[in-house]
Amino acid sequence: MILRALLVALVAIVPPATDVSSASRASSPAGAQRAPVTPVFSRDIAPLVFEACTPCHRAGGAAPFSLASYREVRQRATQILDVTRKRFMPPWKVEPHVGPFVGQRPLSAAEVETLEAWVAGGTPEGSPADQPALAAFSEGWLLGAPDLVVTLPEPYVLQAEPTDVFRIFAIPLPVSKRTYVRGIEFHPGNARVVHHANIRIDRTDASRSLDVADPLPGYDGLMPRSAAYPDGHFLGWTPGQVAPLVPPDLAWTLEPGSDLVVQLHMQPSGAVERVRPSIGLYFSQSPPTRTPTILRLGSQGIDIPPGEEHYVVRDDYTLPVEAEMLAIQPHAHYRATEIVGTATFPDGTSRRVMHITDWDFRWQHVYRLVTPLKLPAGTRLSMHYTYDNSAANVRNPQVPPARVLWGQRSRDEMGDLWFQLLASDEKDRERLNAEISRKMTVEDIVGYETMLTVNPNDTELHDDVALLYLGIGRTDDAVRHFRSTADRRPESPKARYNLGTALTVAGRTDEAVAEFERALALDPSYAVALANLGSVLLQQGRTRDAVRRLERAVELAPKNVEALNSLSAAYAAEGNVDRALAAIDRALALSPPPALAQVLRQRRSLLTR
Amino acid sequence: MLPARVLLAVWLSGGLVLADDIRGVVDLAGRPVDPLAFGQGVRAHVFIFTTSDCPISNRYAPEITRLATVFADRGIRFWLVYPVPSDTARLAREHTERFGLTLPVVRDTLFELVRLTGVTVTPEVAVIERGGRQIYRGRIDDRYVDFGRDRPAPTTRDLQNVLDAIVAGRPVTPGTTKAIGCYLPDVLK
Questions:
Q1: How far is A271 from chain B (nearest CA, A)?
Q2: For helices B61-70 and B158-168, what crossing angle results, to 10°?
Q3: What pLDDT is stored for residue B22 in this prediction?
């Protein structure tokens, strides 16, 4: 553990802030302005290349070719100069004045000038004695030996074309008890083609079912809602980056039976490739004491006309409590051009927390602040994204340009700015979480309504958005969407059941009874429909009808504690105390959730008084 | 530098290429090849310059194979040219197998084809028609606009357009385009 801690410290400290590194490099004898002599490789170029390029451009590294010696660098000198001038390499999309972020390794303008002078001067080597030693690059796990390594069971075979391929894999995590995780390290398994990885945790079997349904490894499409960032932690991978482990008190909880959900963005190489990533997990022995909160700003109502060159998406949120910003992640697709994130403090001053002037969808990255940024209560976090949906945007996936709506597929468009925030205490965190969760749900609903304008007959979308409406108490909207599903799937008992349940929540009991009856006409042994119908009838005072339905429900599903609870209440309403008590005891023996157990015990004490 | 008897007269807008003695162009068995021989029925030679470690060049492998297949029976001779010394015959063979490149392969060991055509990056192509005139040099298509800036699909297929014209017997105005890719090593210049 001590070794691990040291490694963590190293990872966290080594990547320096831009200004610090530029200053130290510029003050070296290599400083182009101060040394009019032609720069030489050993003294001036090697320190810069070995730090900024070689970590990826080396034998076995993530990048295509090696830049680890004078010979290799000299051969590519023109190339290096061109790509560094254009800031294509090293890959760092954020403007230099924003940050500093962990792993920040852009070249300063002075360093590019040094490269220019070296190329103009004929790429001389200089005295080999001046050349710094190449750092020892670890071929294994940069964060140390993981506590658990999972590997894709069988490789995914990637075809030679086309440009960008996305594939989602659900990888089971074999832990037998609740486990606390300080971080993960992702190994792409084929660095030639794996461009980045979005990683989530799914505590349900939703991702696994989608993966299993596709005969090949993984599946195409979207991650289900249940695949989420765990406990406010970003997970993911971009080339050349390893997220440091978090301190043990910030670890996230991994429940047994969870899956790691990995969405790979791959760029076919021109040849058929096998892709088999591995992920190492690093555990903590003790439960965390602090949990971050993730805020997502953005719009899911994006609707850009064809040819529109300057479409703007804005959003903001004012913090109700003080918090620290730990990390930030922008997300958009091919039509976004400029991305700006700003923190405006209560005193009126503001600070750019994200700024990318040439957004490139291929460089998805989680930007972790070297020093967390304090945000007093009342700080406004805002985003301002610009999109170009004209033919002049060469990245536009639609030629000729077409109307584009919000959606998660890469040909759709998105605009999100995610913040990882850490509240000062649990009370603040709960308040922040509750507010943010509602804000994000409201925006998610906008997203579903957007998708439904394109696919009005997608009943899964209607069902999902209905559940979201229920979650924020907009029951009539939930009813409307469940009814849309029921109208489109008249033979589905489940659709009728969902509609009946939403009507019950909305207090429209007569309509609810009618829908449950329809569900039961389609499937007479539909136990939960019988149980809910019984409950509604009980509410209406139709006790005898209620008992009959609930008895049948319990007969079909003897372990349904909710039905047993309703049945006991119905018996009690009939005055049948013995049966009511028997039903209560049956339910309590099944270890119901605490809240329900309390209700049962209260009823029991009332009946036995 | 150049073999004494190679006479070059290449103008940017396309000119006459006289290359009566190319010595360093060899196949993967090391046998000399005359890539500018115009046998019967050959309308044009297409040289596609590649290097085994250039990602952009590699991503064009399926398109190169497609073009070579489309024009195979129409009098267009395709050559895949490896100009970089580190791409040995063994590496070049492994590379073509890995990327499914089945067209004839040569190594330009004295950089004669590089100088003759004026290519500077990979992938870059040159088309020389019967009579020795270079009528096109540049990109395969406009998929790549710059490093890190590319179209999901090309909107102009430059090489295919030139070859279509040749096959159809239409006059072609000699021209060049800027190819985006990996610079040929500076030692070649």
A1: 4
A2: 10
A3: 79
B147:A271 CB<8 A? no
Sign of CA dihedral A87, A91, A94, A95: negative
B5 interface with A at CB cutoff 8 Å: no
Per residue in B2-15, pLDDT (tens digit) is: 333 333 334 333 44
Element holding B105 (H helix, E strand): strand B105-108
Q: Exposure pattern of B58-74 as b/e (b: 16+ CB <10 Å)?
A: bbbbbbbbebbeebeee
Sorted by sequence, the CB contacts under 8 Å of residue A512 that are 6+ apart come out as: A500, A501, A503, A504, A532, A536
- Of the candidates A77, A88, A270, the beta carbon closest to that of B148 is on A88
Which residue has tokens 């075809």? A159
Distances (CA, A) of B183 to A3, A79, B158, B180: 43, 6, 20, 9
Does B187 contact A162 at a Cβ distance shorter than 8 Å? no
Paired residues of A262 in beta bridges: A169, A199
Within 8 A of A334 by CB-CB distance, chain B residues are: 152
**Contact assignment for B152 to A164 by CB distance below 8 Å:** yes
Residue A136: CB atoms within 10 Å: 6
Could you read off the pLDDT of A215-267 as tens digits, one per residue? 888 898 888 888 999 999 999 888 877 888 999 999 999 999 999 999 999 98
Dihedral (Cα; A186, A192, A196, A198), 10-degree rounding: -60
Determine, for residues A82 and B148 on separate chains, whether the beta-carbon distance falls below 8 Å. Answer: no
Contacts of B150 in chain A (CB under 8 A): 163, 394-395
CB nearest to B187's CB, from A65, A75, A82: A75
pLDDT digits (tens, 9 = 90+) for B103-126: 999 999 999 999 999 999 999 999
Model confidence pLDDT, tens digit, residues B152-174: 889 999 999 999 999 999 988 89
Q: How far apart (Å, rounded) are the C-alpha atoms in residues A111 and A130? A: 18
Q: How many residues appear in chain B?
A: 189
pLDDT, mean over chain A: 89
| Residue B117 to chain A, least CA–CA distance (Å) | 20
A410 touches chain B (CB under 8 A): no
Q: Is residue B74 within 8 Å of B101, Cβ to Cβ?
A: no
Q: List, in sequence order, every residue forming a beta bridge with B127; answer none if it has no partner.
A: B46, B136
Question: CB of A95 within 8 A of CB of A357?
Answer: yes
DSSP string computed for A425-461: SHHHHHHHHHHHHHHHHHHHHHHHHHHHHH-TT-HHH
Q: Which secondary structure element, helix H or strand E, spans residue B114, and what is its range? A: helix B112-117
pLDDT > 60? residue B16: no
How far, in Å, CA of A385 to CA of A129, rounded? 50
CA distance A158 to A372: 39
Burial (Cβ within 10 Å: 0-12, 13-18, ≥19) of residue A103 = buried
**How much is the average pLDDT of A57-71?**
87
Average pLDDT over residues A192-206: 90
Q: Is the pLDDT of residue A565 over 90?
A: yes
Q: Is B150 on the interface with A (CB under 8 A)?
A: yes
Cα–Cα–Cα angle for B97, B102, B105, nearest 5°? Answer: 90
Q: Are strands A156-158 and A259-266 parallel, antiparallel or unpaired?
A: unpaired
CB A70 within 8 A of CB A41: yes
Compute the distance between CA of residue A494 and CA of residue A498 in angstroms, rounded to an integer. Answer: 6
CA atoms in the 13 A half-sphere facing the CB of A600: 26
On chain B, the residues whose CB falls within 8 A of the CB of A162 are 152-153
Beta carbons of B147 and A192 less than 8 Å apart: no
Residues in chain A: 609
Kindly list the residues from chain B whose CB atom is less than 8 angstroms away from the CB atom of residue A79: 182-183
Question: How many CA atoms does the CB half-sphere of A478 hold within 13 Å?
Answer: 23
Under 8 Å between Cβ of A414 and A384: no
